[in-house]
Amino acid sequence: MKLVLLSGGSGKRLWPLSNDARSKQFLKVLENESNEMVSMVQRVWSQITANGLSHQSYIATSKSQIEIMRSQVGEDVPLIVEPERRDTFAAVSLSASYLYSQELVPLDEVVVVLPVDPYVENHFFSAVKQLESVLNSARAEIALIGVKPTYPSSKYGYIIPSLRKHEIDSVYLPVSHFHEKPTEEAAELLMSQEALWNCGVFAFKLGYMIDLLERKGLPVRYEELSREYFKIPKISFDYEVLEKAANIVVIPYKGYWKDLGTWNTLTEEMKNRQIGKGIMSDDCDNTHLINEIDIPVSILGLSNVVVAVSPDGILVTDKSASPKIKNYVNFDQGPMYEERQWGWIRILDDQYYEDGRCVSTKRVSIQKGKNLSYRMQVGREEVWTIVKGKGEFIQNGNYMEVSAGNVLHIPMKTLHSIKALTELEIIVVQSGMKQEPNQIIELYQNWNEIAEHCIKV
């Protein structure tokens, strides 16, 4: 079988650390067995690898997440790239077309889809492995994993099985219907009916989705579907497919499972109450501080609180109120911090002046051995100040070695790149006219290509 992990969403409920460039699955706030800080996607990918499933797994993600995904899980993980965000039905459709036309996967092969950010124990993937045999033995259209509820939650959708006595002890149960995010009172009733939490894990045979695309008049080849991606309905897989399917079965899972989509649920799984600079007084009970900037934060006498600080903003919230953050914060501001395949960028200052000029000051870090693409800024000139490390710099084919203390002026429409010989940090000042939108033209990504084609001999 093939596994497709869906990586999407902007993670607005975990603002200010999450944004359009770094959604919740990329936040390094969890701790692994080696006491290293890891993200949700890194944790899940390590579990998939430990369970022997990585060689048959793919990650479906948007264009804006390619670099951070490569940075966190490696350059060898196959990515299925969405041209834009269009909810889970579109992502699953594109993934099916990729497997069918690019990977030449047979139509009778089972495809398992799961979120990239569930917080589960390793044996959860034993249930994932069962989906293939269950789908075949039940001759179902779709097979699901449903989690045995531990409390009547109103945050999750519920799978209501069709219970018959001889099926109670079965590996799987037929599905009667679904109930999306009930009240707590309704959830108690659903639990009495053996209802399960819908954890977003489902399986189907590839031919099922290919046939569905054909019936909807959509292309089944990856390149064509990518070009017509905007035509796919912007709707969830649950609403578009799951609730219309006639024959669905579910595997009940009784182990630990949690959606870490809000600050109150995420902090429950954080081993450290404090990440980053600051202090908390001893009378702070069940309080967490996550600080990504260099300014220390002090918390005194506050309990059941989350304080999250990043270049994007500052959040101080009672844990029970934290899920409401997306209703109150203005997300029109662009991301002030971005993780890239080669390092990271932090915007220090953005200014617009009366004469129409705009100036952006950034702190850029490039990892040892990594490089920027060979590029030019069409509408901005740049001044780079190397503040740390050594590197190789190319400008319009001219090569030079640079180190801390060097200042480089890069005019508009000038091709340039840099490779870090040691870890590099650069203060970049970009300036231009606000009414002239900037455009970046890239020629080469790989340093060997840059050296071969661009260095004057």
Low-confidence stretches: none
Number of E-type strands: 30
DSSP helix fraction: 10-25%
Strand content: 25-35%
Shape: globular
Q: What separation lies between the terminal Cα atoms? A: 51 Å
Cα-atom Rg, whole angstroms?
25 Å
> Mean of residue pLDDT?
91
- What is the structural class? alpha+beta
Multimerization state? single chain
| Main sheet summary | 6 strands, antiparallel
How would you write the strand order of the largest sheet?
20-21-22-29-24-27
How many helical elements?
10
Keywords:
single chain; 457 residues; alpha+beta; six-stranded antiparallel sheet; 10 helices; 30 strands
List the SSEs and their pairings.
Blueprint: E1 2-6, E2 30-31, E3 37-38, H1 40-50, E4 57-62, H2 66-73, E5 79-82, H3 87-101, E6 110-115, E7 118-120, H4 124-138, E8 142-147, E9 158-161, E10 173-179, H5 184-192, E11 196-205, H6 206-215, H7 222-227, H8 237-240, E12 248-253, E13 257-259, H9 263-268, E14 274-275, E15 278-280, E16 288-291, E17 297-299, E18 305-310, E19 313-318, E20 337-339, E21 343-352, E22 357-366, E23 374-377, E24 381-388, E25 390-395, E26 398-403, E27 407-410, E28 416-420, E29 424-433, E30 440-444, H10 447-454
Parallel strand pairs: 1-4, 1-6, 4-5, 8-12, 14-16, 15-17, 16-18
Antiparallel strand pairs: 2-3, 6-11, 7-13, 8-11, 9-10, 9-11, 10-12, 18-19, 20-21, 21-22, 22-29, 23-30, 24-27, 24-29, 25-26, 25-28
Helix pairs in contact: 3-6
